[in-house]
Structures are given as structure tokens and as C-alpha cells.
Amino acid sequence: MSNERQRILIVDDEDSLARLMKMLLEHLGYSVDWAANGQLALELGAQHSYAAIICDLLMPYVNGMELFEIWRAESPELAERVIFVTGDNLGTRTNRFLGLCGQPCLYKPFDIKELTQTLEDVTASYAS
Amino acid sequence: MMNHTMQQTPNEAQAPVPLRSEPQARQDETAVYLSRLSYETRLILLAAALYASLILSHVMPDVSYLIVVTLGAIVLLGLGFVLETRQSSVLVGNAVALMHVAWITFALYFTGALNSPLLPLLYVIVIIYTIQRDTSQTGLVLGGALVALFVQLLALEAGNIEVLLTVGGHGVLLTATSWAVSKYMGPLYEAQDTAASEAAEYEFKYQLAAESSEDALLVVDPEWKVQELNAAAKTMLRNGHEAEFKGKNMLDLLQARNPEGLAPHQEQVLAGEVVSHLPLTIVGPNDQEHAVLFSALPIFEDDQITAIRVSLRDVTQLKEFRQEIKHLEKFAAVRHVLGGVAHSLNNPLAIIRLDVQVAQALDRKPDGEELVRQVDRCMTALRGLEIYTAGRHNSTFVTDLNEVLEQAIVLTGSQLMMTGVQLNVDIPPHLPLVHADTHSIQRSFVNIITNAWEAMEDWPGSRKLAITARRLAEGVEVSFRDTGPGVNPEEIPHLFEASYTTKEGAMGLGLSIVYETVHQTGGQVIVSPNRREGGTLVRVILRLASEESVQQYRGISSGRVRHA
């Protein structure tokens, strides 16, 4: 596994969750950036290249869907590395969006294995 | 009955007609068509005219006879033109026939052939052609010409040139008259024929419509005894055992659950007034209760009520349908809220799971404080759901606004974030307790926030919702200020009406519930345009809870905590 130096971006307004994911991923050898909102994520995305972006769907200001649409239009290489995370498991709008965008999604409360497995899938294609 | 119907003017033709079964209505149509020709009337008139002219020809065998008969014919003709009714065709037809007969008799008198065996034959021809008028307009002209020709032949046979010329001249005149009559009366006849057949068709269709109507239609006499009824009425009144309805009292057949409510309206109808859509509950087939709307219309003949037309509309299904819609609406609202609750639970649960699993993976202890914090978040969401769905009123009518507003925001937060609505909350801590039912006021806040969210969902402009609260001298004011499309000042008075909505697919129960809840405890809801940023401002003002009820509330709520 070539986790060394692979850069991951976490976009989540839940700082407890983000902190835990960051701790885990750093333990697994990734280099992790955290953006607490969509605006910050856009700035970081403009500065760095990421092997994967773990992005919450529901956030204040710029939400995950809007962020994805901006990236898809302006930086498709970032959009295709997005792994969505959502707690809105019943939302019709959420599910419609996820069905259409084609990106993987982790439904809260997700298992640590789901997280690492999905991350490996996405970063593997980045490495090659 | 048949003639009575026929003599109705077009206006009367639209008056209620008794209801009959389909085959019977067809028979009636044929009968109407036959009566339209009124052979009997015309034959009798014609026979009388012939008889009178024969007698006259013997009484005054000279020109004065001719004058009298002609005058009589002219009077009939004139009457026919003046009346312009169905009967005018009969009168004109008879007038023409009478003139023919007069001329023929006159000619026979002059030619001395009064006792000719041809006379009966001649009369038969005249009769046939006259009654043929209705079916053939040309019959009139041809008949006239035939008679004139016949008289000419008689005169020629007698060798009387004077008569030949005179009668010939009159024959031409007669033919011309017949032609003129057919030309000018023809369209009138046709119009009358069309009107009559249309009236018959109308009546037929009307009867069919009445028979196939889903409303129960009855004609009863002033004693409410059934005279006529349609199929729906039979079904509605058949309480499993009634086979014969006619002559029975309609009110006995109805078996109204609230007959005393009907009594004043019965008198109203008998006094000549119309009763419309009076709600009644009746016992229908299989002893099932039906909600019906009762309407009654008195029918007059010479200022006397001769019959009453009653209609009963079964609205049971409609009532059920309305309840169903209300139910669905409620379900849709609950679904929204459940989505919010799921979101509010899934976030802390994800943290709890990850905290434990990461601790295991990293071989360290989970963060106990963090776990408790997340469990509390779960409990806030569940408590909000509990209050939202409880549907019970708290006995003290005391509400902690801080708690309720937090719950309402938790329940709706995911919707707002999903649509990118920026939520700004400015609620001072420790607001005084207010006089309101906790469940209803929480639901009201959820409704107001959902309304704002729905208004801004597809709004291209700025999407912000500010929720603020402030203390007033006698209460607390909670404001919801959105930046959506705003509310039209003309709409404001209607906003609180149940089923008023500007949203497609919504039933508009939201604000009517808010209004009811807030006013129940003496509060106020004020909707106005959000002048600062466009959009809508909803202000809810609630009175402070009384000292006594606060004491009581503290007792109950501490009990609840202990119990939990």
C-alpha cells in the first residue's frame, strides 16, 4: 500500500467527526487537510492536489452538492475523487443527487472498515 | 300528462319533470310525437266544418253562403297567423280545407252536381291532403291545384263557361293562396316541429340524465309521499327491505339520524322556499351511515305547491377523501421531521462509533466526555421528536422557548442546509417561560420554518433565515425572517385559512395550525413583508406563563426528570 505522502482532504463542519477521521487517516499514513466549510475547501482545492476528498453533504454556506458542482465544472480531477458522507439518509433530494453524481457515499454512522475500504478504492486509482 | 307537457312554453319545458324509467321514457317520446300531429283535433274540426258548410249550402244556396264560409276560413287563417303557436298549423290547415270545401260546394251548386256520387270522394281527398300537411308542405299546393282542377273539370262537363272561368279564376287564386300559405307558414311549421322534437328530445335526455344521476332525485307530494324517484334514490332508500317506494313517506324511508334538524326546513319548503345542501346523516343500505346533502325545491301550479323536488347528494366518500388528504398532509410533514431527526441522530452516532473504533485501532481509550456529549445530542433530537409526535397537551400550558426552539431547529436543520439556506439564530439564553402548549408551539415553529424553507427552496436570490427572540414587557416575541420571494400584502388575510396555499401540491394547513395554537393561549401571530431584505417576517408573540402555572410546571418537570 502506497499510503505514504498521499494527501486527503476532509470537508466537514462536525469538528469532532473530522478530528477523529484525521487522527485515523494520519495513523494510516496519509497526509490530511481539514476544511470546516465549503468555502475553505474550495481554497484548499485550488492550492493542492488530493488523492481523495471526504466531503459531508450537509453543511452551512456552501454545501457538499454545491461544492461538487463547482469542482465538476472547474476542476473535474477533484470532483472525481470525492467520497460523500451524509447523515441525511432519508432525504429524497440527497438520494437523488447521490444517484446522479456517481460518487461513492458513506452513510452515517459508518463503520471504520467502510471508510478505509472506500478510501483505498479511490486512492488506488489516483496512484495509478 | 302528455298534452300538459306539450303545452309548456320553452321556459316551462325546463321545469322539473317527473322521473321515469328508460323504457317508459321511450314510450312517452313516441306518444309526444303522435300528439304533436293532433289528428283527432283536426279531424273533428274538419268534419264539423264540412258538416256546417253542407247545412249552410242548403240554408242559403247563393253567394252569401260563399261569403260566410270564406269569412269563417279567413278568421281561422288569421287566428293561425296571429297565434303563432303549435295550434296555428291546425287552424291554418283547417281554414284552407274549409275554403276548398266552400269553393267545391259552390261549384257543385252551380253545376247542379250537388248530389254527385263523386262528392264523398272529393271530401276524402280534401281530408287526406289537409292532414298530410304536416308531413309534406308540397301536399298543400298540390291539393289546392287538384281541387281547383277537379272543379274546372266539373264545370267543363256541365258546359257552363261562366262557372268555368269563375271557378278557374278562383282555383288559380286558391292555388296561389295554398302556395303562399305553405311558403310563409312552412318555416313556422318547421320551426315549431323542430322546437317540438327538440323539446321531446330534451325531455328524454333530461329523464335519462336524471335516471343516471348519482344524486338521489325524488318528486314528492306536499305530504312528502314519494311520487317519482330515480335509480340512485332507490339504492339510497333501500334499507335492505324496501321494495316499493311510491306512496311511502320519504322521511320514513330516509331514516335520518337527526330528523328534528330537518323539521324546520320541511316547513320552509312548504312555505315555498328552497332548501339547499342541508347536511344530514341517514342510514343507507346495509345499515351504514351516509353523509348526505339535502336540497328541496317546491313546484307550483297556480300558486299552490303541487310537488316538491328533492335531491340527496351522498358526500360520505368526499368526507372520507378530505380526511385522507389531511392525513397525507400530516404524514408528509412527519416525513420531513423524521428526515431531520435521522440526520440529528446519525451525526452523533457516527462520532460515537468512530470514537470507539478509532480508539481500538490506535490502542487508546475512547473520549468519555465526547461520548456523553454525543449521547446528549441524540437525546435532544429524540425529545424533540417525542414532543412533536406526542399530540398531547401539557396540562400546565407552560413552555420553555429555549428548549422548544432548539428542537424545532434540530428537526428542520437538515432541510435548510440541504437547500443551502443560511440559518442565523439569535436567541438569548434563559428566556422566561411562556403560556403555550409545548407540543403545539413546537409544531408551529416547525411549520413556520418549513414554510420559509419551501418558499426559498427554488428561490434564485439570497436564501437566509434569521430566527430571533426577545423579551417584551408581557411576553416573548419570536421572529422568523426569511429572504424568499415574500408575501403579497393582499394574501396576508388569507394565510391563516385552512387549505389556503400558494404552494403547488400543498394543502395549506401549516399556518392555520400556527394561528390556532397561538391564539388558543392569547398570543398573536403577525405576518408582514420583510422590509429589510425582501421576503417574509413572521412574528409570534406569546404571553408569559403565570406564577402559579410555573410552580406547577416545575413540579411536573422535576418529577419527569426523576422518573427518567
Keywords:
A: alpha/beta; Rossmann fold; five-stranded parallel beta sheet; 6 helices; globular; B: alpha+beta; Heat Shock Protein 90; 3 domains; five-stranded antiparallel beta sheet; five-stranded mixed beta sheet; 18 helices; 14% strand; disordered N terminus
Commentary on this structure:
The complex is a heterodimer of chains A (128) and B (564). With 128 residues, chain A is an alpha/beta fold. Chain A has a single domain, classed as Response regulator (Rossmann fold, 3-Layer(aba) Sandwich). In chain A, 50% of the residues lie in helices and 18% in strands. Chain A has 6 helices and 5 strands; from the N terminus they run E-H-E-H-E-H-H-E-H-E-H. In chain A, strand 1, helix 1 and strand 2 form a beta-alpha-beta unit. The longest helix of chain A has 16 residues. The relative contact order of chain A is 0.17. The model of chain A has no long low-confidence stretch (mean pLDDT 88). Chain B is of the alpha+beta class. Chain B folds into 3 domains: 208 residues, no CATH class; 99 residues, PAS domain (Beta-Lactamase), CATH 3.30.450.20; 238 residues, Heat Shock Protein 90. Chain B is 60% helix and 14% strand. Chain B contains 18 helices and 12 strands. In chain B, strand 9 and strand 10 form a beta hairpin. Chain B is elongated, with a radius of gyration of 44 Å. The two termini of chain B are 83 Å apart. In chain B, 34% of the residues are buried. The N terminus of chain B is likely disordered. At the A-B interface, helix 1 of A face helix 13, helix 14 and helix 15 of B.
Question: Quick recap of the structure?
Answer:
Chain A has about 130 residues and is of the alpha/beta class. Chain A has helices spanning about 15-25, 40-45, 65-75, 75-80, 90-100, 110-125, and strands spanning about 5-10, 30-35, 50-55, 80-85, 105.
